[in-house]
Structures are given as structure tokens and as C-alpha cells.
Write a structure and sequence with these properties.
alpha/beta, Aspartate Aminotransferase, domain 1, Aspartate Aminotransferase, domain 2, four-stranded antiparallel sheet, 13 strands, 14% strand, binds pyridoxal-5'-phosphate
Length: 395
């Protein structure tokens, strides 16, 4: 008897990062501050909960339109046109169980065995397993570390072969916190058009934005027909446990992904979708207040990290992550992350978890805890970095 299938064991990303290691230390009774996970600490705003509760009470307990409730898709079509300059209408939208499910459907629908998919390093690791489960081959193109993890189209082009099918963008980027400029996106668009490639863009952090403007690559000329734009309510609305996202694509591309969705989940829970409807149609004050709180924590973390010996930390333009460079300590990021876990009892992610380009960095999620806890974490980190040998006074 053979168990399981090769496509399960042949995936290369088997680690859950620092979380698994943290569990063992926590089980020994230590108070760990968890800054490794992208789990928003805010509660979902009340009007969103009310939307789902009202739908449940009103009997929205039966099968949904498989693509998502028509009212929700209509609201999302309006949002996409207004916020993203994406004009696909309700027929070009598929509601999914979070961005994870959206990405799974997109990779499964797009890839044939052996198709190559280019990811920009540092990348979001969870995309790798999905590419491999779909039979694809991840190909890594570096971002320009020396210039704020900028996109280098010539470095991407270098990786394009006859088997390349798709480029994956995460914009704003996890883990770097970058928001790509129009010029960077235009360079990717030019490559995609020239080599006739698909672009899958993960825009889960579109609204967790502090500086600059978020541009959806699908809005650039010639890109609508080749872009799968993925969004979710997860981060900006603090709805990670709701599992709600959506794909925007040309209407002709939706049936292939729907075929997979209707065979794996049938559709997203009907009444849950009314929470999303409330989120997208109401005033955005509560979302803005959460982003403002994250901005305060970003500023605080960046300021404190830059005071620590051996550490430099660029200010992320978006997301809930600071990606701090620790090369000045003379230690590698894996041993720093392990030390911080074991000695400082602060859990951060080792930058090399996100690829070779992330080496020498640690990713600190400032969105996963309230400010007093973040202050405590920064005090612990400061004590650790100041105690390292050769830690000169930075001030
Ligand atoms: C870049 C990126 N994509 C996708 C996800 C997962 O989103 P969801 O919970 O909506 O599946 C995350 C969560 O951390 C993320 O950072």
C-alpha cells in the first residue's frame, strides 16, 4: 500500500518557522511574546459581526451562489473599480476561504506539471507549497536587497525559460513591507506581456498602508487579461479567523477556478459572506483606526530597533511587519532568532525562512500584540542586543 501520494511528500517547505520551536518553550512555562505570526490583535469591528449575525438570524443558512453571494460580488466589483481601478464586474469575482484558498485555486487552475513560477525573494513561503501541489516548479528571482528590496526586472527576465508560466507578486510585500512603485510594476507588466505570462498578485495588505500609494498591477495597460488579483478581509478588517477572500480576474478565467472550488469547499459559508458585505459597504472608520494603531506601533518598533547595537531597520511602507537587518551583530539571523526565543522570550521569524534574500534579517510582527506588549518586547530585545559582545553604544 502506498501512502501518501508523491505530490504531498515532494513539497519543499515543510517548516512552520519559529512557531513550532516556540511551542516547546511555552510548554515549559515561559512567558513568550509572539511576534512571529501575522495574526492581527484587534477584534473584528462590531458592524461586521452584526452583518453576519443578522444574516444568520434572517435564515441565510442555505447554499450560496457558488461564486459568492450576488450582493457581495456586486459590492466587491464596486470596491475593485473605486480602490483598485480593476473593472471586472461581479462576473469576474470568486469569493474564497481567505487568500490562501484564492491562491490555491489560482495555482491549481493555471499550472500544468513542470510549469515554472517565478517568485521574488524574499518571498511569502506559503505560496511555494501550493505551486508544488499544483505540479509547478518554484523559481526564485532575487529582489534588490541593496536598494530596499526593489524589483529588478532584468533579474526576473534572467529566470524566464520556455517553461515559465507565471510571476507571483506580493504587493505590499510580506516580509519586506515594501509597496511597489508604478515604475517597478510597469517593468513587471512589460515582462509579462513580452513573454506572454500570467501574473498572480497577492494584495492581502492593500489597506494596511502607511506611506505611498498601493497600485494593483491589473490596472496597468495590457494586464487585466493576464492578472489574477487576490484579496482578503484577513488583515485590514482583523478577520483572519473568518476565512474570507476573493479573486478578481477576467470573467472567462473564473470557471476554471470555480471548478476546483466547487469540488473542494462547494462555496464559502453563506451567512459569513454578509460580514464581508458589511465590511466593504460601511464607512471605513474602524479599519482606518486599526491601521492608525498599527502605524503607531510601526513607528515605535522602527525607532527602538534602530537604537539597538548591530541592528538597522527600514520603516515598512505597509503591512504589520518590520524587517530588521541584524548583520551588524556579526551573527546570522537563524541564531539570533533562536537566541531571542530562548533567552529574550520574544518570538520573531528568521529572515532566511523567506528565502536567501531574507538572510541577515528578522521579521517582527508588530500587528499581533497591543502596544504595552510591544513595548515589553522591545525592552527584551534591547537587553539582548546590548548584551552581545562588541555591542557599542549606538546613541
Ligand atoms: C502575503 C500573505 N498572503 C496570504 C496570507 C494568508 O491570508 P489568509 O489568512 O486570508 O489566507 C498572509 C497571511 O499572513 C500573507 O501574509
Amino acid at each position: 500500500m502506498k501512502w501518501p501520494a508523491n505530490r504531498i511528500t515532494n513539497t519543499s517547505k515543510k517548516s512552520f518557522g519559529m512557531f513550532e520551536k516556540a511551542l516547546a518553550i511555552e510548554a515549559a512555562g515561559h512567558d513568550l511574546i509572539h511576534l512571529e505570526f501575522g495574526k492581527p490583535h484587534h477584534d473584528t469591528p462590531q458592524h461586521i459581526k452584526d452583518g453576519a449575525i443578522a444574516a444568520l438570524q434572517a435564515g441565510k443558512v442555505h447554499y450560496s451562489d457558488l461564486r459568492g453571494e450576488p450582493a457581495l460580488r456586486a459590492a466587491l466589483a464596486a470596491k475593485l473599480a473605486a480602490d483598485n481601478a480593476i473593472h471586472v464586474g461581479p462576473e469576474g469575482i470568486l469569493v474564497t476561504n481567505g487568500l490562501t484558498h484564492a491562491a490555491y485555486l489560482a495555482f491549481m487552475a493555471a499550472l500544468d506539471e513542470g510549469d515554472e513560477v517565478i517568485l521574488l525573494d524574499p518571498y511569502y513561503p506559503q505560496h511555494i507549497n501550493k505551486i508544488e501541489l499544483a505540479g509547478g516548479v518554484p523559481v526564485i528571482a532575487p529582489l534588490d536587497r541593496a536598494h530596499g528590496f526593489a524589483i529588478r526586472a532584468d533579474w526576473i527576465e534572467h529566470k524566464i525559460t520556455a517553461r515559465t508560466r507565471m510571476i507571483v507578486l506580493v504587493n505590499p510585500s510580506n516580509p519586506t513591507g515594501r509597496v511597489y512603485t508604478r515604475a517597478e510594476l510597469e517593468a513587471v507588466a512589460e515582462l509579462a506581456i513580452q513573454h506572454d505570462l500570467l501574473v498572480l498578485t497577492d494584495e492581502v495588505y492593500e489597506h494596511v498602508l502607511y506611506d505611498g500609494a498601493h497600485i494593483s498591477i491589473a490596472s496597468l495597460p495590457g494586464m487585466a487579461e493576464r492578472t489574477l488579483s487576490l484579496f482578503a478581509f484577513t488583515k485590514a478588517y482583523a478577520m483572519d479567523g473568518w476565512r474570507l477572500g476573493y479573486i478578481a480576474a477576467q470573467p472567462a478565467m473564473i470557471p476554471a477556478m470555480l471548478k476546483i472550488a466547487m469540488n473542494d469547499v462547494t462555496h464559502v459559508n453563506t451567512f459569513i459572506q454578509y460580514g464581508a458585505l458589511a465590511a466593504v459597504t460601511a464607512e471605513q472608520d474602524s479599519r482606518d483606526a486599526m491601521v492608525a494603531d498599527d502605524r503607531r506601533k510601526r513607528d515605535f518598533v522602527v525607532q527602538r530597533m534602530n537604537q539597538m547595537p548591530g541592528v538597522t531597520c527600514a520603516s515598512p511602507e505597509a503591512t504589520i511587519y518590520a524587517f530588521a537587518n541584524i548583520e551588524g551583530t556579526g551573527k546570522d539571523s537563524t541564531s539570533i532568532a533562536l537566541d531571542l526565543l530562548e533567552k529574550a522570550h520574544v518570538v520573531v521569524e528568521d529572515g532566511s525562512f523567506y528565502g536567501v534574500g531574507g538572510r541577515g534579517h528578522i521579521r517582527i510582527c508588530f500587528g499581533s500584540e497591543p502596544m504595552p506588549r510591544i513595548e515589553q518586547a522591545m525592552d527584551r530585545l534591547s537587553t539582548y542586543f546590548n548584551a552581545l559582545p562588541n555591542a557599542g553604544d549606538k546613541a
